[in-house]
């Protein structure tokens, strides 16, 4: 990636897009006080530089749970028996392929990985645990915390 200088306008664009990426280019340009062509060019530059990874809709899991049957969220701590780079990469490669795993972090100190998972119900979690943890001889310890209430979810990156 080439070196990219970010100015105040770039930061305003990134902040505005984190708040609502569905706005039109015209509206976005007005919000950050630039012309629409300048806005389009700058957003493309930010996207091409990899600063904007994806644009997605954030869904409300609590409201969707009754409709689609995905109602159990959990934070899972995983400790591996062997923590070498090859073993960690192998575990990571396996878990990131699973659709129930929403986020995966390699962490230190403490457990080796922290996963945020979302499944339909407890049998769904048990199937996930069997698939990813129980069947893996290198998994030493699994500690799962089930969510009873989501007080905040804000995936944006702090820019200021």
Write up this protein.
The longest helix is centred in the first third of the chain and has 13 residues, at 36-48. A hairpin with a 6-residue loop joins strand 2 (101-106) and strand 3 (113-119). The protein is an alpha+beta fold. Strands 2-3-1-4 form a four-stranded antiparallel beta sheet, covered by helices on one side. The protein has helices spanning 8-19, 25-32, 36-48, 61-68, 85-96, 122-134; strands at 72-80, 101-106, 113-119, 139-146. The chain has two domains: 8-48, Arc Repressor Mutant, subunit A (Orthogonal Bundle), CATH 1.10.10.10; 61-146, Alpha-Beta Plaits (2-Layer Sandwich). The relative contact order is 0.15. The chain starts with 7 loop residues before the first helix and ends in a 14-residue tail after the last strand.
Number of separate domains: 2
Q: What's the arrangement of strands in the largest beta sheet?
A: 2-3-1-4
C-alpha termini separation: 23 Å
Radius of gyration, whole Å: 20 Å
The name of the CATH architecture of the largest domain is: 2-Layer Sandwich
Largest sheet, described in full?
Answer: 4 strands, antiparallel
Structural class: alpha+beta
Please tally the helical runs, counting DSSP H or I stretches of 4 or more residues: 6
Q: What fold name stands as the CATH topology of the largest domain? A: Alpha-Beta Plaits
- Low-pLDDT windows of residues: none
Instruction: Report the average pLDDT across residues.
Output: 92
The percent range for helix content is 40-55%
Strand content: 15-25%
Please give the CATH class of the largest domain: Alpha Beta
Overall geometry comes to globular
């Amino acid at each position: 990636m080439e070196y990219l200088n970010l100015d105040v306008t770039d930061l305003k664009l990134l902040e505005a897009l984190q708040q609502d990426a569905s706005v039109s280019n015209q509206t976005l340009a007005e919000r950050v006080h630039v012309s629409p062509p300048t806005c389009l060019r700058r957003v493309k530059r930010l996207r091409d530089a990899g600063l904007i990874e994806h644009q997605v809709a954030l869904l409300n899991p609590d409201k969707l749970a009754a409709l689609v049957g995905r109602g159990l969220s959990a934070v899972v701590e995983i400790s591996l028996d062997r923590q070498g780079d090859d073993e960690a990469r192998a575990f990571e490669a396996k878990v990131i392929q699973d659709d129930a795993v929403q986020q995966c972090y390699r962490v230190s100190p403490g457990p080796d990985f922290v996963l945020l998972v979302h499944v339909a119900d407890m049998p769904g979690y048990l199937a996930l645990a069997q698939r990813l943890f129980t069947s893996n001889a290198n998994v030493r310890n699994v500690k799962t915390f089930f969510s009873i209430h989501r007080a905040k979810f804000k995936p944006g990156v702090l820019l200021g």
